[in-house]
Amino acid sequence: MAGSIRLRKQPNVWELRVYLGRDSNGKVKHRYSTFVGSRRDAERELARQLLLLEEAPAPVIEGAKWNKRTTFNEAIEAWKANGWEDLSPKTQMTYNQLWSKYIQADIGTRSISSTGIYEVEQYFRKLSDGGLGESGIRQIRAILHRSCKLAGKWSNGAISNPISGAERPKTPRRDPVRAPSVLEVRTILTALETSGDLRLHAFCRLAIATGMRRGEIAALRLNDIDFVTGELRVDEGVVIGSGGVTVKAPKTAVSVRKLFVDQSTLDL
């Protein structure tokens, strides 16, 4: 079992990488985590993770259950045992919440093979009529589609995917998000300035001045800012998942970027 340690940009912040093997397509898989402390402590933590991984039993996907009686819940459970870790911590938490609230006791109990496109679209419409928004239904469709696709692969094609042809119901068009006016922004900044909360003031000022996401601002460190040129480097974000708070690189290279900040924001 192989692993490695890499020093991050911050002092005494280490990236631990554990080799997990290869997936069914031959792609190398690693598990990454962040550790704060001395190098020796980081090496001990890596050794501990490697030992736990060696002792842990490998997830077993029973081949006998892949048949026409396989339910959506069984397919999702199998995905959670084999591949779920590829999702970001926040996506895992969101998918778990949607599964337990809207899928598990409903369509999740049904056999995939005995559920047609018509029944799937009825289910989506019931969710919409019950008040679930477009984003929630889209994510539920993504959960069902991926789990059924995996079930089809693991069953060697014995299970078809009724989600692939199912359409989501059209939802009423909502008013677009309105950007705050200049007066509203000034009112917010004035209230923050008089509140005495310097950290919150700086946080909101950065959001207003740069448009950064809150997770990106929360992950910002002083060595990410050049106070001479006004350049600010965005290359990490705080992510909240079921396992707690982690700091990780963004999903896409486009999100890694440099911004320039005005002098008054730098002063704050």
Summary keywords:
268 residues, alpha+beta, DNA polymerase, domain 1, hpI Integrase, Chain A, three-stranded antiparallel beta sheet, 8 strands, 42% helix
Task: Please describe the topology of this protein.
Blueprint: E1 3-7, E2 13-22, E3 28-36, H1 39-55, H2 72-81, H3 89-103, H4 117-129, H5 134-154, H6 182-195, H7 198-210, H8 214-218, E4 225-226, E5 231-234, E6 237-241, E7 244-248, E8 257-260, H9 263-267
Antiparallel strand pairs: 1-2, 2-3, 4-5, 5-8, 6-7
Walk me through this protein's architecture.
The chain has 268 residues and is α+β, with helices and mostly antiparallel strands. It has helices at 39-55, 72-81, 89-103, 117-129, 134-154, 182-195, 198-210, 214-218, 263-267, and strands at residues 3-7, 13-22, 28-36, 225-226, 231-234, 237-241, 244-248, 257-260. It has 3 domains: 3-55, no CATH class; 63-154, Tyrosine recombinase, N-terminal domain (DNA polymerase, domain 1), CATH 1.10.150.130; 182-267, hpI Integrase, Chain A, CATH 1.10.443.10. Helix content is 42%, strand content 16%. A hairpin with a 5-residue loop joins strand 1 (3-7) and strand 2 (13-22). Residues 58-64 have low confidence and may be disordered.
